[in-house]
Amino acid sequence: MPATDPFNVVFLGAGNIMFGSDEGPWNHSARFEKKLGDRFRMLAVVDPNLPRVHQTIATKRTDPAVRHAYLNTEVYGTLDDLIAAYKGKEDTIRVFVIGLPPAFRGGVTTGTDFELRVSKAFPNAHLFIEKPVSTGSLEDAFKLGEILSQNIPRIVSVGYMMRYLRAVSHVKKIIDEQKLIVMATNARYACAYPSCMKPDWWDKSLSCGPIVEQATHFCDLSRFFGGPVDLGSVQARALEWNEPAGKLTKIHPGVKEETIPPENRIPRATTAIWKYKTGAVGHLTHIVALQGASYSCELEIFADGYMFIIEDPYNTPRLRIRSPLSDEEEVIVCKDDDPFLEEVSVFIDAIENKDNYIVRSPFIDACETYALTCAIRIASERK
């Protein structure tokens, strides 16, 4: 019998990734609503921008389809306020969705220890954490991962939603069935930069730059297929903002790049190569160049006799496959694919079935992706 009991959730952070925006398909609240239906209860939202949160909740209450989930939602400005309010009733919260900026999480020191504070105050709650796991100390991120993994019943999932694409699942299935070993991965991520409207995104001191913040998805997918990376093999080069080829003409008017210290301005293109521990090779190119609204992204995976190309993962993903059976490519169009919904669905299923192994992006593994992106950034800035 399907469960019918209320499923209580708290959102830590109320930005675009949590409640949606015009910039992209991300919107965790919509996925929890769809997955849980009448069971979903948003117990509380924690965010310092209280007027925005109150307006968001008020809007949700006008929608008859989801009004039940937000009727009793409480709003808090800080985590300390939430902890105080739930003293003695900690176990009423089943899930925390942590979507505040990575500068405030992913660590074990004061100011970066958000997950640690949540896990201590609410030891039985499960955690869904946005990517990247941190923009701080890599060593501290791994320390946090070790701490979180010690609480075995707790499910922890990191928001690398592209691992849940149907095209990705199909490629994984073929690789496993044919007992293939990946020989090479080649990722390209070209963003439409006028839609990058957050000033922090353009400041490396705040976002860690586009490799850590954005290309992390394709570094993660590359690792998902290629396996562990030899970080000592990473080499990278970058086109900087002040080089002749680095001039951009359509930066969003809300972004005043000239006010960002020159040393903190982001590169326009970064290309990197590395070796996987199997001996396979990996390649990534990230480009801040396209205008309009649509990104251009794809990942190539090669193995003996096989080529897989995953195209347009944000919109209508397509999978092209060439196999030993024919030189002609098989093309699979994955219409109506929603990896955001799938990752939330798997996370909830893992909680209700007490099955940690179905989560495709555990925290420690996400730390390995953070390590790769940091290595690429450092190598690209090396003179």
> Which class do the helix and strand fractions yield?
alpha/beta
Radius of gyration: 21 Å
Q: Describe the biggest sheet?
A: 8 strands, mixed
SSE run: EHHEHHEHEHEHEHEHHHEEEEEEEHH
Distance between the termini: 62 Å
Brief overview, please?
31% of the residues lie in helices and 25% in strands. The protein is of the alpha/beta class and 383 residues long.
Descriptive overview:
With 383 residues, the chain is α/β, with parallel strands linked by helices. The protein has two domains: 7-161, NAD(P)-binding Rossmann-like Domain (Rossmann fold); 165-337 and 363-381, Dihydrodipicolinate Reductase, domain 2 (2-Layer Sandwich). It contains 13 helices and 14 strands.
Keyword list:
nucleotide binding; NAD(P)-binding protein; 2 domains; alpha/beta; Dihydrodipicolinate Reductase, domain 2; six-stranded parallel β-sheet; eight-stranded mixed β-sheet; Rossmann fold; 383 residues
Outline the secondary-structure elements.
Blueprint (H helix, E strand, L loop, with lengths): L6 E6 L3 H4 L8 H9 L3 E7 L3 H11 L6 H4 L3 E3 L2 H7 L9 E4 L15 H8 L4 E4 L8 H12 L6 E3 L7 H12 L4 E11 L11 H4 L2 H4 L2 H11 L2 E11 L29 E8 L4 E10 L5 E8 L2 E6 L6 E6 L2 E8 L5 H15 L9 H19 L2
Parallel strand pairs: 1-2, 1-4, 2-3, 4-5, 5-6, 7-10
Antiparallel strand pairs: 7-11, 8-9, 9-10, 11-12, 12-13, 13-14
Helix pairs in contact: 2-12, 7-13, 11-13
